[in-house]
Each structure stands twice: as C-alpha cells, then as structure tokens.
Design brief:
Blueprint: E1 2-6, H1 9-16, E2 22-26, E3 38-43, E4 51-65, H2 71-77, H3 84-95, E5 104-112
Parallel strand pairs: 1-3
Antiparallel strand pairs: 2-5, 3-4, 4-5
C-alpha cells in the first residue's frame, strides 16, 4: 500500500478537520498514485516516524503545468492559499529550489474511507 505523507503542521490540521482533500505534488507522479487506489494519509517529517491519520481512495489524478492550477485545486489543497503565486512561493520554500510556472505538477484528489 502507498502513502500520501504530509509534513506541514498546517496540513495535519487541515487533514484532521477533513478540509484538505487534494494534494499538489511537483512532477508527474501519476504512476505512483493511480485513480481508485487506496493509500494511507500520513503525517511526519522525512526520515522520522509517521502517524497514520486515515485511509483514503484516490478519486482523481491530473497532470498540469503549475500555471494551469485553478481556484478549485487551490481551495482543496489549502483554503488559506488563494492564488497560484502564493502556492508557487510556498512550493519554493518546501522544495527548497526554484520552481517555474511551466513545471509539471500532479494534482491528486482523495476521499477518506470510513470504517464501520
């Protein structure tokens, strides 16, 4: 089983409140996260133990240029980020490198799997 891991404390809060149901990742990683696959949503820093928050189903995966992201993508990724420019600045911070608006991103929508 694959995991979608998140490292930002703000993302953990959004995931736990079920406000975040999309992640945007740099590069074309659709082969790692095919639609209809089950993943664990986890939180933790690289090379550290991870906390499983819940299991989710990958609903939709699309590949876009960074500049093609729309307000729906942004809102589901992080409702506090309102523009592509704000997300671009955030990505340069977390990836610690220069990112072009022509760079490819993978947009992954997911939904929690509820257990009885």
């Amino acid at each position: 089983m694959f995991a979608l891991n998140f490292q930002s404390p703000n993302h953990e809060k959004l995931l736990l409140s079920r406000t975040k149901n999309c992640t945007i990742r740099l590069g074309d990683i659709r082969s790692s996260y095919p639609e209809s696959s089950v993943v664990d949503i986890t939180f933790g820093k690289k090379f550290s133990p991870k906390k499983k928050l819940y299991s989710a189903l990958i609903d939709k995966v699309s590949i876009k240029k960074f500049s093609q992201l729309n307000t729906g993508d942004l809102d589901h990724q992080n409702p506090e980020i309102k523009t592509v420019e704000e997300l671009h600045a955030f990505f340069e911070k977390i990836y610690e490198k220069s990112i072009s608006l022509d760079d490819i991103v993978t947009v992954i929508y997911f939904s929690e799997i509820l257990e009885d």
